[in-house]
Records
---
Amino acid sequence: MARVPFYPPSGVYADSYAKDMRILKTGTQRFLTVAGLVLLFALPLIPGLNGSYYLRLIIGAGITVIACLGLNILTGYCGQLNVGQSAFVMVGAFASGMLTAFHGWSFWASVVPGGLAAAAVGVLFGIPSVRLKGLYLALTTLGAQIILTWVALYGITVTAAGFSVSPVRLGPVVFNTPQKFYYLAMGFTVVMTFVARNLMRSRLGRAFIAIRDNDRAAEGMGIDIFKYKLLAFAICTFYAGVAGALLVHYMMWAQLESFTLQDSVWYLAMIIVGGLGSIEGTVFGVLFITVLKELVLVVGPMAQGKLSFLPMGAASGLLLVIIGSIAIFFGVLEPRGMAHRWSLIKAFYRLWPFGY
Amino acid sequence: MLVISGAMNGAIYGLVALGFVLVYKASAVLNFAQGYMLLLGAYLFWFSRVTLGLPLVAALLLSVGAGFLVGILIERLTLRRLIGQPLISMITVTIFLSLVLEGLVSMIWGTYPLQHVTVFHDSTIRLGRLVLTTQSLLAFGLALSVAGALIAFFRFTRMGLAMRGVAEGHQIVQSMGISVRRILSLSWGLAGIAASIGGILMGGTLGFQLGLSQIGLLAIPAAFIGGLESPEGAVLGGLLIGLSESIVSGYVGNAAGVPAAFVILIATMLFRPYGFFGLERIERV
């Protein structure tokens, strides 16, 4: 993916490597980041926005951001197409949910094992990536989705039926309402985003990008492809597992129906709409698709009344047509994702009024 | 018995897989909307047979012609505009396309299964211990002959030669006076035909319902096992998948057919990364 490189604005000099490596280079960036974080965590306090409806939306988006960040690290940075992300979310969800529900672990202790369980399965399905590329690899991850769902449905009794999970506790606080869970979810999302951002500008991230651009050349430069590809799979599925652990403890109910092929396809669509190989693009894409899907849920019941002359289920069909058309239109208009447009806007702002 | 019914379904999977291969060969795009093109074709057939009350052959021709047009329309409206853009955004667009097609179908015909209509006259034939229905025999024959016709078209006609040329490289073919756009539309149209026929035949046995689009999911491993570049491979892969699906679900049960297809696929991929007949890409740094 072509990225617009970051030219620091005039007057900002990097006189040491440490300064050149900083994520936030200018005062404006630092101010906006702090302001954004404060706004994010103050949101439940603002009247009008603190209804459960908006908070639920944002919590859902936050958890999805975590899963999509992992996917973007694997697909966007390392170039390995993964069409089975929601199956790995499922592995993390069930692993962590079973630890808390049946073995009496606390949520905090079960997040990392949940992530690790997903990562172990992910590495297993990542092994074919040594020889496979592109679409052929996508097929093995599609297979992962179908095989893992089948195992959960027919192989394990507990996961087939679904089970309830007790809410997260921290000392006396029980995170059982959207207002409380919001802080937990946002905390995880912010930390995971920061970690992803940092990983991707390190040696690891550069190795991934080299493999994406040309794996033979990367091997020639001394990057151990096998190791790094599996590492990318492990990181991706670890993120998925953490997202899954959060999801079950947010819904307080673990069920198979939350993890379908459709979800995997949506995750993929989110990072592509947002921008492959871009952390901020992941967030944009998740927000865009979440809002689009929500529109369907809001407009759907309203349209159902007006369209009673059409057969049953016609309204949902109409909305599928609308959401699909918007997404196609968007894909045709902005094939490089929203992150590309974002960097163009940033460049415009930075260079204004001397754009040329 | 399982072998026979597996082979019957397999021929249809092979035909649908052929649709994947046609589009992939011409434009390197994996068309995720294939399963929904199939659905639309099946519903169009139902529409012309039941709602319009046309005779069988007319209904078949009409719905297959409509499938061809749908394929061309899809190429024209969406993928034409994406030529030269990253491959992955083209593939995403086909994913969104499947939403639109599914929505269209459920908007016009609703989400419930439609009244059952047999494609061919149904009667049973006994061969010793085997029980066959004429329905599935005719479906098998039609699927294989359409697949054969498409392969022959691909191999022996000028148009087919041009299509194979487009698969090699757009610029070269363009400079030899072949219209790449025409060829791309044509390959989508042919994929639409393959999908429609597959959908109609499947609809005849499984009933006309939204679940028909799942066949796209089984045709994908078929196309990959055969190798994405090979039409013959797609048909053989389809037969293999059909056989394994019916044998595994017959002996193991629990809808194990689809996962089994993917287990076979992954095993194949480990030893033959480009499928059995696929083209091995030689890469230079």
Note: The mean pLDDT of chain A is 82.
---
Amino acid sequence: MEQPLLNRSEIVVLQPSSLKESLKLLNENPDAEIIANASDLWPRIRNGEVKPKKLLDISGLAGELSYVKKDGNLIKIGALVTVSQLEGESILKEKRFSGFKDVIAKFGSPQIRNVATIGGNVCAASSSEDFIPLLLAFNAKVKLSSVDGERYINLEKFIIGKRKINRRPNEILTEISFEDPGEGYSSAFEKIGRRNTLIINIVNMAVVGKVKDGKIEDVRIAANRIKGKIPERAKNTEEFLKGKALNEETIAGAKKVLSEEVSLTDDFRASAEYRKALLLAMLERLLFKLRGEQ
Amino acid sequence: MAQMLVKLNVNGIEREVLVDPDDRLLDVLRDEFGYKSVKEGCGRGDCGLCTVLMDGKPVLSCIIPAFQAKNHKITTLEGLNNDPLMKKIQEQFRAHQAAQCGFCTPAMEIIGWHLLSRKKEASKQEIKEAISGTLCRCTGYYDIIDAIYDAGRPE
């Protein structure tokens, strides 16, 4: 299939081999689009949706930014960690991180998991980015590095719209971190699409929480399109659930709060009404998962 | 910027090739190296037919910029032609008549090889998961799954 001809062959490609060099190059070329393994941006460049003049290829920094580690009480994930690499990480195999396993199992396809990075997934800030709800539910922060230094902002403040992120032109997202919630917590994620692999979700939802002796001690919920087109926390529903016994009455009440909190829209994937029915069913299922039921 | 000189390692052969910044690994493998087993289906990462191995892992050559393939080892089906496990997989594809139009066959065989080389007696569920991102337009999945399954079993 011949693609439409653009001036794509004029793109200037910058290929630094260290973070320091990358930050300097980006500072000099703030109009450059950053690519890691390019699995999201490349098809959009090829079809003409994005027309960059310059590309900053940071895949050469894999040695510096491909770590998953526990530092004090923080779990730190380097921006260039691929989805397949996350799958093998022993830290994330603990029960409280089982939401990661849920995201990975339905992420893209096996081939895409071998190249897609967690930093790229967050920066793409599109509705297909299933890590975002989970990371929101973990209260994650992103680290932005530039020649001026580093700054940390909450993921919630970083994602500001569909494909819009709060990144200054000379900054690179270098790390995602969140506090280890500790023993007793668990997490889960669900995604519904028209098939299991290679599909953009109709809805998705992630929960992180702690249920002790049948009572919800803490809970954080995030889903796509709570109030618009981007993944957000369902804070009213969280407040309603906190401190209550996890039973059918509470779940019925939480569904009511959630249905008032969301403002879903129709699109070619599904109607708002169908989306709402799915979200409410997901909430119930995920809350039962917190209690340790399947 | 005009063309870029990139050193690629494909099927054990190192070669410097001139690529445009917008060339895909797929284009270089087919047009420069002549490896026609690498097929273009959708061209946007949805169908899996352009699957090759990069450092031993299946990836989609249609969404990998050619200039990013430097410093990696690329393997196409042609590079596995003399491999005993690949021979076995291909025998089973013939025995099960698992190629209908044949367009997805190279990708399916590479993915089968990758799975069986890590886990000889893969279960049908594991095979289904491995090929879940690779589409067969003839929808002959059962024969493909059976062929990979039997290739992993003792004769």
Note: The first strand of chain B starts at residue 4 and ends at 10.
